[in-house]
Amino acid sequence: KMQARRLLGALALMLCVVGAVGFWGKKAPPAPKLTPAEAHFVALGDKFKSFHKDPVNIALHFATTPLALIAAVSMANKACKTSLITMAATVLYCISLTDKGIPPQNVVASTVMMAAIGIMAQSTQCLSWGVHVAIFLVGYVGQELAHVATGEPTMQSSYQGDATFLSQLGEHTYYLVPLVFDAVMPRHMDRASGIETKGWMMDWMVRVYHLLPFMAVLVMNFVSKDGAMCFPWQFQRSRVLMCKLTSKEDVEALDNIRSWTMKQGPSKVTSSHWWHTPPTPETTLVLPDAQRQAFDKIAKCKTITDMFYNAFSPSWTIDVLNGMNEVYVSSPSTVKKTSDEVFYTKHIDGPYYYVPFASCFRMIIGMDANEEITTVFDMVPTEQAAQKGDVLAFDFHRECHYIRKNEGKINKDFRIVLKVHYCVYPKWAMPFGLLLGWLSTRYNKAFRALFLFTISPNTAFEHFSAWNVVFWTKVVYAIEAWFGYNNVAYFAGLALLGAYVDYRIFMVGTSFVHYLRYINTYYHRTNVAYVVFKRDVLIFKTAAIAQIAFWYAHAVTSGFTAWPAQLDTVGLSMILGGYALSVYTTHQLGVDGTYFGIELGFVKAKLHYVQSFPYGVIPHPMMVSQMVALLGFHKLDAFRTAWPYLIPAHLCLYFIHMVQEHFEIHAGKPLLAARKAAA
Questions:
Q1: Theoretical Cys-Cys bridge with 621: which of 168, 520, 543, 614, CB 3.0 to 4.6 Å?
Q2: Using a CB cutoff of 8 Å and minimum separation of 24, what contacts does 20-23 make?
Q3: What percent of the chain has pLDDT over 70?
Q4: How far apart, in whole angstroms, are the C-alpha atoms of residue 115 and residue 29?
Q5: Is the overall model pTM greater than 0.85, yes or no?
Q6: Could you report how far apart the first and last alpha carbons of the chain are, in Å?
């Protein structure tokens, strides 16, 4: 409950400390030469580089160093039973780097990595001590093995027997993350701050500027931690929520509303609506006090609030939007052209996808023995024919869905449901929650008027309006189904940064997302939005391969200025052969089988149901084939010179995920063990 205050307090403390350092720190006189701190870091960096010349060794350090640090920080969290101490230490450490003569781009990269390490350590502190020690040893020993594999001595070996061993080890450890980045980053050492510092205020502003990405990572973690916002690399749960009302009080309230509704004589020709709160002054179909109280009792019952708390957090605010709530009645199926027909088109209910940190949920509560009408959520996928007491809630502005008639099933009586609406948000996001609630209510009233205007068009204008409603409904749905509004915003933001700051921001931000999504989804695997997962990883994988292919062609043709004098036939054979085998493997498994369909429970088949080539011959053929193809790109000298660490980074992430799959590292019970126990 104190997360918002803690975050604001931490950021305020950071600004105060930075300001104090800038005010009290001694300023070196302006000079074209390096400051003592800069000269010291340059000397230390040159020494580090003399032991880390091989790109493979450096690339492995980007995996082993964070792994060891995550384990160390996580063990500290576990011992202290809180992550506040280590996060505070991380903040102070990152602030201290701004005054050590480290180039600004290195400060940014190092502090962002430390923020990521601190965040990941919060998630791993629940692991056992044995697992922690094992992870630490893998990271620490992995660094040693990287040197052995590449034939390079370790930097630690250069001062192993010195009398100042401990002080040099401490300095080596303190600067380790910046030194790893220094090995791959060009230096711009005119000033460590990037500009001449003139006074404490300018120094304060420069330090804060270089810490902005670090603070951005902390803020992104904060807003995404309990579901207020979800980034493409994170595990994304289904936001379709279900429960059932079974208590005596809730069932009696449902019976009260249904009995009253039937006495009103609902239309047998079209749908009928009774509103909780009249949408306009002219509205007369409004629930009387007794039924409104029963409605309120259901909307605020413990079963429903617990459903939201379990999906998000008990500290979240749940506002009931009475201006959207109604009793909805559709006539028996023997009557044609009911309003249900309109919603057979796949659609999203509302347009306010981009209002952040809050969600408007529409809830359907069944009140009868409905078997004919099912609500389908094709991006999860899941569905439900809401019967008496069934509760089905989904995001009004983000969830793709449609209504389906079940063949062979006929409702002989009226289908009556409660449509209840909520705005849910963390307490710190109250302005966004109130805004979304107001916008949603206004939109629902406006769309209701448009719906009534176009449901039975007569004039040319009414026909045009009806066509527009259907057309834009399909367009809005198609964008979400095929690309996702979240991805649109993500790619657009990175494209702007890439265009106006540095293209490499776009490349890094889009090249590795699918690996992180693989790892997160395979690990959590519960209540997955499976179709969304497949859509996203295919988009980001395509973007990653397309960029690699573009820069490979750029290297082969000398910047698209000449035909290649000679092709790298071996490299091209690795590329074509690797991807050909990958495509064939996908054909063997099927697309769903390829993307964890069996592990996540969406494909009803045995884990190793494919035994023909390449399975049984090549271990993990899908990943091995793509790693071979990536090495084919890396084999070309011109490509490797231009992008020395791009392919090694891809390979490291592929290897991490391969190990995860091989040893079935995930939050649930291992699939094989579970099936053996069931047998």
A1: 614
A2: 21/95, 21/98, 21/99, 21/207, 22/200, 22/201, 22/203, 22/204, 22/207, 23/200, 23/204
A3: 86
A4: 33
A5: no
A6: 44
